[in-house]
Structure formats: C-alpha cells, structure tokens
Design brief:
Low-confidence stretches: 452-459, 463-487
Number of strands: 0
Number of helices: 17
Strand content: under 5%
Shape: globular
Helix content: 55-70%
Distance between the termini: 73 Å
Length: about 475
C-alpha cells in the first residue's frame, strides 16, 4: 500500500484556508499532530509536578499555597497567552524584540503553518507554546514561599508574562528575533524558561525580603514531605519528554534524540548531586537525588535537540555539581531564595546554554531533515559560545531588572503589598491566604512559633468563620469535641 504524505501548503490567507470548502488537514501529517497534542499534555503535566516539588520542600503550614500558586499560574497565563501573549511572542510580523497584536485573541490563528515550523499549524503551535509560558510563570512564582501574598502574585503573573516572558520568547524562538538572527541556539528554553524564571525568582525573593527567623534555628528545618518531592520529580521527569522532545515540533528522529538526551542528563544529574551530598552527610539523600534530576533536566533543555547522547552525560554531571554548589550563592547575596529556584533553574539554564555552545553538532540538528547549524565549539565554531553568552546574560539582566521594577510598582499600589504581615507568616500562608490546608491537621497541634501551639480559634484568619465545615462537623460527632480544639 502506498504511503500517504501531506501536501505542500499553498494557502495565502492568514487562517490557512476556508474549512467549509477545503480540507485543511491535508497539509499536515496526522502523526505530527498526534505527537504534538501528546507533548502539549505532557508539558501541562509538569505544572502539578512543580507544585508538589515546591510544596514538599516548604513547611507544612504553607504547603497548599505553593500548589495553589503554580496551578493559578496556568489559569492566568493561559488567558494571557490567548489574549495577547501568543501574538506578542510569535506573530508572523514580529520585530527583533517583540511581536505585534495581529493575532490578539488568537485572531487568524488556525491552519496556516506555524512561524517556527511548517510541520504543524499555527493553532497547535499556539497551544503547545502556551504550556511553556505557563510552566515558566509557575517556576518563577515559587519565590513567594512562606511569606508572599497571593493577590499581588496573581497580578504579577499577568504583567510578567506580558512584559518579560513574551519578549524573551520572541527574540529567542521567533525567526525574526535578534537572538535567532544572531545565531543563538536554544532548543527548548534555556533562556526563555529557565534563566528568565530563575532570575525572576531571585528578584522576587529580594523584593519580598527574608522570611521571619531567617538566619536562626527557626528556619533550620528539613523539607516537610519528601514523598511529595519525589512525586513532583516523577511528574517533571515524565513531562520533560514532551517539553524537550516535543520541541522538535514533529514526530521525527530529532525528537527521539532529544528524548534520549533528556533521560541521560536527568539520570546523571541525580546521581551526581546525590554523591556530592553523601560526601558531606554520609547519607543517600532522596531530596538530593531529586534536585539533581531537575538540574540535569534544566541543563539539557537548550541542547537536547543539538547535542549527541555522550554529551548529555557531561551536561548532567556538570549541572548536578554546579547547581549543588550554587545553592550557597543565596547566602553570599543575602537573598532568601527559599526553594533554590535560582540555583537550579537560573544557574542550570546558564550551564546548559554554554555547554550547548560547545557540544552542538550539525548532524544532530539536521535529524529533522531541514535544520542547519554550523555546530558548536567541538565543530570548530567557537563563536557559538559568544552567541550563547550574549543570549544568557541579556535574558538574566532583562528578567531580573524587569521583575524588580514590576514588583516595586505593584507594591506601591494600595492593597497590593507583596508581603504578608507577621501574624500571617507565623500562622502560615495556607491559613492566612487560602483558608484551606494541605493536610487534615486542623484538629492537631500546629507548628508555629517558640515551639508552641496555636489553635485555629486563636487565629484571626481561620477562626472568624461562623460555622464548622461539613468535614469538621463529621469529625466532631466522632470524637465528641470541636475538631479545631482537639489536641
């Protein structure tokens, strides 16, 4: 039986044609469409992974707030992306730094070939890249951990994705962008995703200030739920196959290579970090292994579709060690980056960008059948390192400086102070900001301050509710007492 291939695109309208009189599917391979839809779902799957990872690292009293804020990032950013984010990043008539509003509200975004690849239509590329925007914002806002208010953070999500993420995505991935024109290579988001989110988290931590008790025994605590960290890591590891392999933008050998590199770098990164921690503690840390896995995934992101598998081993080893040591940077800077977002994503993204400049191979890039690059340093093209450095430094400076300015202005607005007050911080963000809890510990002793306990009805946040919840009433009938006062 003869193979059936997609027809060459010959449309002239912005939408790609009229679906009432044309079959717009004939221009695309069904396998490419199916793979990219699956990759889109895999990237979305990473968001709860980030939430679980962040939540497990924090203290129990603020665990739910971190899951909430990462999921809210999807809601806010997805609307922003539909409204004008996609147009600002990937409009076909974009400039060197940002796009225009020709595709506002997904106007004319349908079946024409996407700006990044003729293998998939605009609409599919838009929803896929929307997941990238969402995960980037989710990574950045983990900086609110244990002391940031939710409302200012939600407003920040919309503004930051518009003013920071969209321009960086445009100049990196849109063929009209200055990094793309210069010759910088970034397969899946070393700068737009990781450097931008890591530097934004560092800026957010700086603007929020240090947590109460920073530098004292009060903050000398272990992650409250290591199992949750492991679950989050698994979600991320699985989802990253859609993140990296999906960035080939079709089902081809380059996607396969990206998948192989992703798994190798993650594995080596996890082992490296774990060994470094064992050297100091003589314990095989599960948190260390998970942190190394994420560091390896971050570093291989920009190079996954450019480097051979043996180079992925180097990516993982260098990322695992450099991000491990980078967790000390916050102490030198005096910034309370509670979840080490900058150490893993900012430093990991920079390491990945530079290693891509060294190990990029022309034959790997051409596995998709059409991408041509001169290669990296090992191919004799050492100028690639300069391109990668320019991309990385500009991305860091723009994101860090822009984030500080955005947060400074938001903080000046009445009712939008970035930081919760001291009592809210003592009680925890779950009680003060969410009014719900990650665990059913309302009836138990709460870990707050001075080793003491505080009941819900001693808090101005939860105890001002007039009636018990249905769950609390059921519990009360079982134990014969008010669950909020049980000890």
């Amino acid at each position: 039986m003869a193979d059936i291939h997609a027809l060459p695109y010959n449309g002239t309208t912005p939408t790609g044609g009229d679906s009432l009189i044309q079959d717009l599917n004939v221009y695309y391979e069904s396998g490419d469409i199916a793979w990219m839809l699956a990759a889109t779902a895999l990237v979305l799957f990473m968001v709860p992974g980030v939430g679980f990872f962040y939540s497990g690292l924090a203290r129990r009293k603020s665990a739910l707030s971190l899951i909430w804020v990462t999921l809210m990032a999807v809601g806010v950013t997805s609307f922003q992306w539909f409204f004008w984010g996609y147009s600002l990043a990937f409009s076909h008539s974009a400039g060197k730094f940002f796009g225009d509003l020709s595709n506002i509200g997904f106007r004319n975004v349908l079946a024409a070939p996407s700006v990044a690849s003729e293998r998939i239509p605009d609409l599919l590329f838009a929803v896929y890249q929307g997941m990238f925007a969402s995960i980037t914002v989710a990574l950045a806002v983990g900086a609110v951990a244990e002391r940031g208010r939710m409302l200012p953070c939600v407003i920040f999500m919309f503004i930051w994705s518009t003013l920071i993420y969209d321009p960086i995505a445009c100049w990196t991935w849109n063929p009209a962008g200055w990094v793309s024109q210069m010759g910088g290579i970034d397969f899946a988001g070393g700068t737009p995703v990781h450097i931008s989110s890591g530097s934004a988290a560092l800026a957010y931590s700086l603007m929020l200030g240090k947590r109460r008790g920073h530098g004292t025994h009060e903050l000398n605590f272990r992650p409250h739920n290591v199992t949750q960290i492991i679950i989050g890591t698994v979600f991320l590891w699985v989802g990253w196959f859609g993140f990296n392999a999906g960035s080939a933008l079709s089902a081809n050998m380059r996607a396969v290579m990206a998948a192989v590199n992703t798994n190798v770098a993650a594995s080596v990164g996890g082992v490296t970090w774990c060994l470094l921690d064992y050297r100091l503690e003589r314990k095989w840390s599960a948190v260390g292994f998970c942190s190394g896995v994420v560091a390896g995934l971050v570093a291989i992101t920009p190079g996954s579709g450019f480097v051979p598998p043996w180079a992925a081993v180097i990516f993982g080893a260098i990322a695992g060690s450099s991000c491990n040591y980078a967790t000390k940077v916050k102490f030198y800077l005096g910034i309370d980056d509670a979840l080490d977002i900058f150490a893993v994503h900012g430093i990991g993204g920079f390491v990945g960008n530079m290693l891509t400049g060294i190990f990029a191979a022309d034959y790997v890039a051409h596995l998709d059948g059409f991408t041509t690059i001169p290669g990296g340093g090992i191919s004799g093209h050492w100028m690639q390192l300069a391109y990668q450095l320019a991309d990385s430094v500009s991305g860091f400076a723009y994101s860090f400086g822009g984030t500080c300015l955005i947060l400074f202005l938001i903080n000046l607005m009445p009712g939008l102070g970035l930081r919760a007050d001291e009592e809210a911080e003592i009680i925890g963000m779950d009680d003060a900001e969410i009014g719900e809890f990650a665990y059913d510990f309302v009836e138990f002793t709460r870990d707050v301050v001075n080793g003491g306990d505080m009941l819900d009805d001693e808090s101005k946040f939860s105890a001002d509710r007039d009636s018990l919840t249905a769950h609390e009433k059921a519990f009360s009938s079982t134990v014969g007492d008010d669950p909020r006062r049980s000890r």
